[in-house]
Fold this protein.
Amino acid sequence: MINQSKTKLLKQKYTLLLFVLLVATSAFANKTINYIVKSPEGELVVVINDENDTVSYTLLKNGEELIGLSEISILNNSVAAKITDSKTNAQNKDWKPVWGQFSEIKNHYNELVLSVKLSEGKAKLYVRVYNYGVGFRYELEGYQEGAEAHFYCEYNLNTKDVLYCPAGENMPLGPLSLPDFDTTKVIPKLMMPLVVEHSKKSYLSLLESDLFVAPSFGVIKFSYDKHKKRIVSNNTMKLTDKKLTTPWRVILVNENIGDLVTNTVPLNLATECQITDTSWVKPGKTLWDWRVHDYTAKDGFTYGNNTESYERFIDFAAEKGIEYFLIDANWYDNVTKGHFEITEGLDLEKVSTYANNKGVKLILYYDRHKGDYGDETLFSYFESLGMSGIKYGFMGSNVSFTLDAISQSANNHLLVDFHDSPVPFTGIERTLPNAITKEYCHAQQDSRKAFTPESFIRMALINAIQGPLDMNNGNFDIIGINKGERQRGPKELNSYFSTVVSESARTLIIYSGLVCIPDAPEAYEKKADLFEFIEKLPVGKWDESKVLHAEMDQYISTARRHGEEWFVGSVANQEGKTLDIKLDFLEEGKTYDVTYYEDAKDTHGLKNPETYQIRKGKVKKGTIIKAIMAPSGGHCMWIKPE
């Protein structure tokens, strides 16, 4: 063991020496000084130079240029910047998130720290390179309070690259062509995260992480510079101190588009957990009452905003081991400073006591459109009611306001779920893990204008890169919803294209700390054998997550492991698909029992959405499963050791 330890130590020292030599400056013919830093495995390379008083970077993968020479600065580009010194760091250690797609994450990077002389004050530029991504951050020091900091970054992409990005509650945009931006008068709003399908057969995503350290910068804003013919981001804030640390500008790089969704670089770049005791932060599933109002069960009971309805939800949650019940906005009629007017027929205190006795936790919605209770006392009031979380609606995209809401929720032991196009606070679930999810997507319970199988696939591959999503998947009474048998169903009847198996798969595919299932208990009980897949999901407690297959607008297939059990969910577009899913992630030499939850031969996302079949079998490592999915359909597997 002693010899092995010495050998390992010598290897580490040798590797570090090579790294230092690699970063050492080298003079080119034009006397430009270049600083080079590689990823631990050596495939990604960032080259930094400061020619013409401008600091710029180039990103390469295996010698191929992914992003050409691009400026990166902390003050407006009229300020001269000169690199005066450099040093290197390297790290390789593991850390454990409170919840998420992985139970342990490796933080392995090489880092270049550059001292930058400015016309006034000084700065440090941090260039952190991982095997699958890059982060850039500035530290600014020596400027007067009130001065403006401009965090400017260019992305000089290839003209053959195509882009995709979120579009609020509409279908995500794309494919977008850079040359088209030169000729069009109106360039579409480019939201984070931008996904780049690179001409060199790589996939990139442009986003940010750790907005926590400087919320006044606001969310990263992208635009297209027609003069320079490149994507740029430029966020501005006034200095409130003489020292400033910016968020990270992040570029993810993967060979497969699905791997962008499980890329851990944004989490590694985020500030470490700021909650001392996280024992109360519990991910899980939740029932939700909003779309069940006016649903009449077979026993004649009609759901509404009342004590009896909520007790039925709680009974079902307790029976099925569902951790939470989310009560939406109609639990109160009006709100004034320091007072909620509880809706008639609802005894909220009785419901809270009933849930507590049944072991079910409650999450309560707060809608700022109805009036202002006052945020200074809102969160402590929710905790006093016995609530375990708050769903916060219509607070807008103000970053500082959002961060304050997360912090105050944490101080009062509340999970927080944000509604209404919220701030895409990438990495915040590491820093403040009570930020359990958010509707940074078209939640399918809103108007159906954008919710098609294709838009689901796009959001799962684009919107989900920035973090957990509250998409409200898992409807089982699709026929009834399409007929308009709900108070809040689709505005256009028969516009909901999905199958019950696809709905089940979606609850696994979308990463979230809180999986909100929106249908009536009776709809799930009617298909209890299929509901088993959702019931067994250990939401947020995953040890490992993989996207097995993914193609924009076509399909996505995701596998997640908890202990020795694997859950696999796949969905297809309106044409239907067949995927060969190779179980090469299973342990060698073991036999596993598998339960298949599948579309039947006559299943169709519009014509016959509620038929399905369930069968069992045996599989081993390397077994290939032919997942046959109907139009708008899906496929699920629950795999556990024999």
Summary: The chain has three domains: 2-269, 273-438, 497-642. DSSP finds 13 helices and 35 strands in the chain. The first helix runs from residue 2 to 23.
